[in-house]
Each structure stands twice: as structure tokens, then as C-alpha cells.
Amino acid sequence: MGMNSRGEIARLAEIIEPNIGVITNIHHSHIGLLGSLAEIKEAKAELIPWLNKNEANWLVLNKDDYWTPELQRRTKCRVVTFAIENQADVEAHSIVSGKGRISFTLIYRKNKIPVSIAIPGLYNIYNALAASAVSLVLGISLPDIARSLASFKLP
Asked: Where are the domains of the chain?
């Protein structure tokens, strides 16, 4: 779910009652709407109380994001992290970009698998890692995740 203002995520969470939530990052993209990164963080953090209602729920966090330690401290549910730069549960290593594709090694619990995605941009590796983290908590295997990421195409 997206966010344009404070209170929006809380309202949407009340409707859908999520059991898995993802905060990809706290970034300047919403700065015009909320005025500061701290306000953006608080708006996105509205998801956490809903996930905390059940310790079996999951929150997926970007370990490369400055605000993640604070968000993680607020969390009572299970957490899975992803990162490129820092140590996390789900990581991307050996990143190579070229010819409209990005290749990397996806690592989870010392298991490694090569991944290639047909969408450029470092931010898309983060998106792929977040999707992989959600898939892993749902019990999807690394080979199935790699195949799905390889077949993904933008509309």
C-alpha cells in the first residue's frame, strides 16, 4: 500500500489487517507531502502497530536504511531484513549491471542462488530483495524466487 499523508497507512491497515508488511525505505520521494524524513518515517511506521497485534506477523525492513534500527525497536512481531550494503537475512552480492539487466547473487541463510532481473536500477535490486524476503517467509524456495524474478517484466 502506498502513502501520501499521515494517517493513510493506519486507515488502510485497519481495512486490510495485514499479516506481512514491508517498509522498503524512508526516502525523500514523499518529502513534499510530509516535510521531513522524520515525518515520512512516522507515516510509514503506522503499519507497525497493526503488525504488532500478532507476534506471528512479519515486518520486512531494509537494513541499509538509516531508520531501520528505530523501526525494528518498535516491532514486537517477527522481522526479516534485506540489504545490499549491510548484513541482513536476505542479501544481494556480486552485482553486475549491463544490457538492460542486473545480475546478482541472492543469499539467504548461507544459501546462494544467481538471479538476473530485466529491470535496471539499484532500487530494483532492493525491490527484488523485499519481494524475495516476503516470498521466503511464505515458504517459497530460492530457486522458485530466482525463476520468478527472472521472468518479471514491467507492464
From this structure: 1-82, 89-155
In this predicted structure, the answer to whether residue 141 has a pLDDT above a threshold of 60 is yes
CATH code reported for the domain at 1-82: 3.40.1190.10
Angle at 69 between CA 56 and CA 87, to 5 degrees: 90
Domain at 89-155, CATH from 3.30.420, 1.10.10, 3.40.50, 3.30.160: 3.30.160
- Over residues 60-68, the mean pLDDT reads 97
Q: How many CB atoms lie within 10 A of CB 135?
A: 18
In whole angstroms, give the CA distance from residue 58 to residue 13: 14
Q: What is the mean pLDDT of the chain?
A: 91
**CA-wise closest residue to 26 among 34, 16, 17, 14:** 34
Question: Beta strands of 26-119 (E only): which ranges?
Answer: 58-62, 78-83, 90-98, 101-108, 111-117
pLDDT tens column, 80-114: 999 999 999 999 999 999 888 999 999 999 999 99
What nine digits make up the cell of 16? 486490510
